[in-house]
Amino acid sequence: QYTLSHRLGGGSFGEVHLGQSPEGEFCAVKSIFVGRRAELARQLVKNEITAMRRVKHENIILLKEVIETSD
Predict the structure, then answer these.
(1) Closest by alpha carbon to 47, among 32, 59, 36?
(2) What share of the chain is helix, strand, coil (3-state, %, to 5)?
């Protein structure tokens, strides 16, 4: 769905890339790699998604979509 460009940053769970939506909008795409990690790691990711959905502030990036894959 999104075209990924260069890497903007990363952390212990994944990476952030410059992306472009099918509509042509530029965005940051965060790929989180949970895989077979412990249930605690999965819960931390779920908590982050929940928090990001709630936050609405002009200085904080807006969470637009969550896509889960089996990759």
Answers:
(1) 32
(2) 25, 30, 45
For CA atoms 38, 40, 43, 47, give the dihedral sign: negative
| DSSP string over 24-58 | S-EEEEEEE--TT--HHHHHHHHHHHHHHHH---T
Which two structure tokens, joined as six digits, stand for 27?
Answer: 């965005």
pLDDT tens across 9-31, in order?
988 778 999 999 999 999 999 88
Q: What are phi and psi of 34, to 5 degrees?
A: -95, -45
Q: Can you read off the two tokens belonging to residue 6? A: 């260069």
pLDDT-derived band at 36 (thresholds 50, 70, 90) equals low
Tell me the whole-structure pTM to 2 decimals.
0.73
